[in-house]
What we know:
Blueprint lengths: L1 E7 L6 H12 L2 E4 H13 L4 H9 L2 E4 L4 E5 L2 E2 L1 H4 L2 H10 L3 H12 L7 E5 L2 H5 L3 E8 L2 H14 L6 H17 L12 E4 L5 H16 L2
Parallel strand pairs: 1-6, 1-7, 2-6, 7-8
Antiparallel strand pairs: 3-4, 4-5
Helix pairs in contact: 1-10, 2-3, 2-5, 3-6, 5-9, 8-9
This protein binds cytidine-5'-monophosphate (C5P).
Amino acid sequence: MDNIITIDGPSASGKGSLTRSIADNLSFDVLDSGLLYRAYAYLYEKGVQTSEIASYIKNLSFQFNLNDVHVYDNKEEITTTLRSEKIAQVASTLSSIKETRKNLLEIQRSFYDGHGLVADGRDMGTVVFPKAKLKIFLTASSEVRAKRRHIELQNRGQEVNMRDLIEDIEERDLRDRTRTLSPLIPAEDSVVIDSSTMSLDEVLSFTKKLAKKEFDK
Ligand code: C5P
């Protein structure tokens, strides 16, 4: 078993905040795999050849802290671009292609150096880190998730219509759930948490208890 906690689930289910809080609590590293898919989409849109995107991604700088992650392309900060719904849609379309997933697999695995990792995504527990010690599948209703994403985008200074947001989220979820490669499904040995009526603090303390049980063995 690897010293890894995987946190999979649909978009805006709160995976990012939970991942950073748990990682901070345990002094583990963080992998935000969705951000790698978004970086892949960003470079694809810039016209980089798909066979070269992986090496370009290695040259981006990812700076994690408790509240957020900042991404730089040379000196230019590209976090807001990567977090936009437009890039999310391109990432979701590209992520169903075999070559994309293959190109990103080793980069994702390279985030684990044996110490401890919290990995957030769609297939962390099923495909990328099947030997993870603790696997969480975090979900919430699409309305609750759209509201959370709305607040997140507003805080970044981006205005989006709620109805469009719910449609975007549902469209992306459907694509992620029904694709043939690495579909969004809970790993058989995962703990499923529906956070529709839970606060981040409640989800966090529940997950901390699970982690304590697994990692104190
Ligand atoms: O998590 P986030 O919303 O940033 O992910 C953007 C898109 O990247 C998702 O909609 C999904 O299509 C894709 N993705 C994926 N596998 C992952 C993480 C993200 O296919 N492990």
